[in-house]
Structures are given as structure tokens and as C-alpha cells.
Automatic annotation (TrEMBL):
Family: Belongs to the LytR/CpsA/Psr (LCP) family.
Source organism (scientific name): Schaalia odontolytica
Keyword Zinc: no
Keyword Membrane assigned: yes
Protein name: Biofilm regulatory protein A
Regions crossing the membrane: 31-54
Compositional bias (Polar residues): 370-382
Domain Cell envelope-related transcriptional attenuator: 116-278
Region listing for Disordered, in residue ranges: 367-425
Signal peptide: none
Biased composition regions of type Low complexity, renumbered to the chain: 383-418
Gene3D superfamilies listed in its UniProt record: LCP protein
Length: 425
């Protein structure tokens, strides 16, 4: 499947809606012996042990946003619960905090004085725990930002702007609690969907995760010489250390078409590579490495208070162990280029409303929406055909993506086979 948003198109083109890719490494699908079952129990015990060991750290990192966010809301804070028996919506925000990092900052000096929100994902877990749907929200999406209460007691004015500006507005450039609270309020207003909890992930901690893994094999698609992210690498399969991988996650203008949607795609592919590296590790037989990786991971995470409870987290994790990989689905919130500014995007209707209505009703994505599942395979939801009024939009999307696909196949750089990355031993 071709990501139509990754190449320049006419402003009136309706792109096929592409998804994030987060493949899992495939392995034996069935447990056929008592020995294998014992290994599974050992793995579950190990995960529980790690969570229990680092529970105090996770709780200490939790962010209290009570009283912050939408200034017009009169809703009281909901008490923490185990989410049992109901759907759960978790907001995941990747921030780029480069303050006081010196040579490790890797980026434009203008970006070193504040906290930036670079990645936002909305994760919906179905009430019956049979389905996980993840929607990425573009940072360059033009939307309404509500009035938000900040930690210093001030209140921002409502305005229309880029989606990621909500974080800066709420944080006053430095306060994470105010930033994520305003982002949460913006997401709820934008989608009409309630957020139950959040997790903030700092990009700088992302570097430590990769170093704890011993690096990550990744196929750089093209030579990169980017002074803004301090990234200077040649194309090809190579093992990236944490610093280089972080710079790649941050780079934008030196790769592809230079758009935010292109960077989202780059980050998703890097996350997929990290997942492959993680799944390839035998942490059960190497507990020191497991503890090191988990400690790095937890140091990079700051959850909402209701997600800092280890019993809640482990209970939620265990309830998801039987989810079929085909029912783990990743998409980008339906969008199209703005008619007034091709560097910005706006919601694509009716697909945008259809996606979020499905989330609110705890239903699968509609059949018009393409996704990537937990096995890294592209697909569409099996559902009745759409009404005729939806057909032009669908055919236009297919047409828009078909042209780049054909030209790519004729390109000299395209090859019938590709060497595996990492290289086969």
C-alpha cells in the first residue's frame, strides 16, 4: 500500500488513508507441550516481577492534571478504577524536551528552550478486549484549541491553530502537566471522544531505550545530511545507536517530502524496527538486560495518575494477552492538505467523522479505512459496502495513490528483491 500523503499531490486530491506500521515478530503460534506452557508462565511472572519492582518509579513519574485543561469544563475528576468491563481510551504523547541537554540536544537552537509535542496517538481498547485501535493525529492539523487552565493559575484564550500548539499553549513552554492537559482537552473537543488516561513519552528517554537494547538495525532509505538534527548518515541497512536513532526520529526536512506526515511515517518505521529488535531478545534468560531496558523505559514514561497504579496496569495488560494481531490496527486520522496552506492539513470528511464515531461506539473501523494490523499487514475492515455517495471519494483516493505506485515501480531504484535488514546470519 502506498502512503499518498508522503508525496506532493494536488491540493484537491483525496489520499488513501494510511496507517502506522508496528509489526510483531512472528514465532510459534501454538503451545503444544507442558514445557512450552511452563515457559509462558515464566514469561508472565517475569513481566509481573518487573512491573512490581519498578512500580514506585512509575507512580513517582505520574502527572497530576486535576484542575487543568479545558477552562470551560465543570466535570469533576473521575476516580481511578481498573477499567474492567468497559472500553478504554489512552492518549499517548511523544514530547521533545531538549532543555539542558548540551551536545545531546541534536537540533535547531530555536527548539532548545521549550518542550515540543511531536507525536500524538489515541489508543482505543475495546470493552471485550478483542480489539486495539490506534489513531495518529498529525501535528500540522489545523483545529480549534480550547481555552485551557495552566499550572500557574492563568487561562489561555481559545483559538484556531496547529494541533501540536495545544501542548505549548498549556505548558507555557516548560510545564508538562499543563501541556498534556491542554492536548487532552483539544483531542476530546476535536474528536468528541473521552480520554480515560494518558502517557507522556520523552524523546530523550527514547535514546536510552535503544542503547539498552544494544542498538537497532534499521534500513536508512536515503543519504541524510541534516545539520538541524545533527544527522549525517548514508543510505542502507545499519545498526543505529540511541543518539543516531533519536536524530532520525527528529529529522523532517532532510527525508522524503519534508512533511510532518512523512516524519510520522519515518518514526513509525523506526518504532517497528525497535519492536523487532525487542522481540528478538531473549530477556527471559537475560534478566539484567530486561531490567535495564525496563528501567530505561519507565524513566521515559510519565503516566496520568490513574495509570500509575501497578495493579491497574498489570490487570489491563493481562486482559489484552489474547488479542489477535489482526485486531490490532493502526491508522492516521483521516486528513487532506489545506486548500489555503499546503504545509498544513485539515480533516478529511466523511472519513474523519466515521473513524471517530466508530471509536465512540466501540466498533471496528469502517470499511473505507485502510489500516496496518499487528502483523504488519495492510487491510480493510470486513463490512457491508458503502453507499454510492461514498464511492467517488474512495475511487479518487485509489486514483491518487495509484500514480505514485506505478511510477515507483518503474523507477531505477526499485528492485524486485530487497536484502533483509538486519542481515541474515
Amino acid at each position: 500500500m502506498i502512503n499518498a500523503m508522503s508525496t506532493p499531490q494536488p491540493r484537491d486530491a483525496r489520499p488513501i488513508l494510511h496507517s502506522a506500521t508496528l509489526p510483531f515478530k512472528s514465532g510459534a503460534a501454538r503451545v503444544v507441550s507442558l514445557v512450552a506452557f511452563t515457559c509462558v508462565l515464566l514469561l508472565v511472572w517475569t513481566v509481573f516481577f518487573v512491573y512490581h519492582s519498578f512500580g514506585s518509579q512509575l507512580s513517582a513519574n505520574s502527572i497530576n492534571t486535576n484542575g487543568l485543561g479545558n477552562a470551560n469544563s465543570t466535570e469533576s475528576a473521575a476516580p481511578a478504577d481498573s477499567f474492567e468491563g468497559r472500553a478504554v481510551n489512552i492518549l499517548i504523547s511523544g514530547i521533545d524536551s531538549r532543555q539542558n541537554q548540551g551536545d545531546d540536544a541534536n537540533g535547531d537552537p530555536d527548539e532548545l528552550s521549550s518542550i515540543h509535542s511531536d507525536t500524538t496517538m489515541f489508543m482505543h481498547i475495546s470493552a471485550d478486549r478483542s480489539r486495539i485501535q490506534v489513531v495518529s493525529i498529525p501535528r500540522d492539523l489545523i483545529t480549534d484549541i480550547p481555552s485551557c487552565r495552566r499550572s500557574d493559575g492563568t487561562t489561555s484564550s481559545a483559538y484556531t491553530g496547529m494541533f501540536n500548539s495545544a501542548f505549548s499553549t498549556g505548558s507555557n513552554d516548560t510545564d508538562i502537566a499543563g501541556g498534556i492537559a491542554c492536548t487532552e482537552a483539544t483531542v476530546e473537543q476535536l474528536t468528541g471522544t473521552k480520554v480515560d488516561g494518558f502517557v507522556v513519552v520523552d524523546f530523550h528517554g527514547f535514546r536510552g531505550l535503544i542503547d539498552a537494547l544494544g542498538g537497532v538495525w534499521f534500513d536508512i532509505p536515503e543519504d541524510i545530511d541534516d545539520s538541524k538534527s545533527d544527522l549525517h548518515v548514508q543510505a542502507g541497512c545499519q545498526k543505529l545507536d540511541g543518539k543516531t536513532a533519536l536524530a532520525y526520529a527528529r529529522t523532517r526536512y532532510a527525508v522524503g517530502d519534508g512533511s510532518d506526515l512523512g516524519r510520522i511515517s519515518n518514526q513509525q518505521k523506526l518504532v517497528a524496527a525497535i519492536m523487532r529488535e525487542l522481540m528478538a531478545k531473549n530477556f527471559v534468560s537475560d534478566l539484567p538486560s530486561l531490567l535495564s531496558f525496563t528501567k530505561q523505559g519507565l524513566s521515559a514514561l510519565q503516566p496520568s495518575q490513574n495509570l500509575s497504579n501497578i495493579n491497574t496496569d498489570v490487570g489491563l495488560m493481562l486482559s489484552l494477552t489474547s488479542v489477535n494481531r489482526s485486531n490490532i490496527q493502526f491508522i492516521t486520522s483521516p486528513n487532506q492538505y489545506s486548500p489555503v496552506d499546503p504545509n498544513r492539513v485539515i480533516n478529511l470528511e466523511p472519513q474523519f467523522s466515521q473513524v471517530w464515531e466508530a471509536i465512540r461506539k466501540d466498533q471496528p473501523f469502517p470499511a473505507t479505512i485502510e489500516f496496518t494490523n499487528g502483523s504488519g499487514e495492510d487491510g480493510q475492515t470486513n463490512a457491508p459496502a458503502q453507499d454510492p455517495s461514498a464511492s467517488p471519494s474512495s475511487s479518487q483516493s485509489a486514483s491518487a495513490s495509484a500514480t505514485p505506485s506505478a511510477s515507483a515501480s518503474q523507477s531505477p531504484s526499485a528492485t524486485p528483491t530487497q536484502k533483509p535488514c538486519p542481515p541474515e546470519k
